[in-house]
Design brief:
The protein is 46% helix and 8% strand. The protein is mainly alpha-helical. It contains nine helices and three strands. It has helices at residues 18-21, 27-34, 49-59, 74-80, 94-105, 109-125, 133-141, 158-168, 172-182, and strands at 12-16, 39-44, 65-68. The longest helix has 17 residues, at 109-125. Mean pLDDT is 86; it is low at 181-196.
Length: 196
């Protein structure tokens, strides 16, 4: 005889990224999903602030997080009640991205808005080509390991790389890391793997 066992579902965050999937999850469907046990949030990257507003309106009584999937819409989404961002730009400038989200979370809209506009050139630069090509090139230029892009993607071309370098030159953390990389300093590995 088999014993029945109840297992709590693992928490799941739904992703709505129509630009990648060709399908948009409508607010009414997301509201239905928010009522299911284990579905705790959504990464919303439709680019439609009106849709995000409707999702938050429909799910405000649920234990459900609406997270921006677009760096450039993080601040407006947080102003509507969103809880943060799954960010590309944070790979390049995490300190200012965190500061912007923390300021918005505390209701310091003046600081959050100033950081949003300071970060806006970086947000745009992360999409001068197909993601993740620009972000991988950016971290490489900063002296960190980004790894190569997978086929069928290709490396960032010379003109776009030059444009990206100009943006990185305006980011304090990027300048510091790029300087360390060009001086030949290497970071110590976090974990050392040895074979027996």
């Amino acid at each position: 005889m088999a014993l029945a066992r109840t297992v709590d579902p693992l928490p799941v965050c739904v992703y709505n990224v129509p630009g990648r999937t060709g399908q948009n999850l409508e607010p009414d469907l997301i509201a239905e999903l928010a009522q299911l046990p284990g579905i705790v949030g959504i990464k919303e990257a439709s680019g439609n602030v009106g849709q995000v507003s409707r999702i938050i309106e429909l799910t405000q009584d649920e234990d459900f997080a609406v997270i921006s999937g677009d760096d450039n819409l993080t601040l407006p989404i947080m102003a509507l009640g969103g809880t943060g961002v799954i960010s590309v730009a944070a790979n390049v400038d995490p300190k200012r991205m965190v500061a912007m989200c923390e300021a918005a979370g505390k209701g310091d809209w003046k600081k959050a808005l100033a950081l949003h506009y300071a970060l806006s050139p970086l947000f745009r630069s992360m999409f001068i080509d197909t993601n993740p090509i620009p972000v991988k090139k950016a971290v490489e230029l900063m002296g960190m390991a980004g790894g190569p892009v997978r086929l069928p993607l290709d490396n960032l071309d010379e003109k776009k790389t030059a444009d990206l370098k100009k943006i990185l030159a305006t980011i304090p953390a990027a300048k510091k890391l790029a300087g360390a990389g060009s001086a030949g300093k290497k970071e110590k590995p976090v974990v050392k793997i040895t074979r027996r």
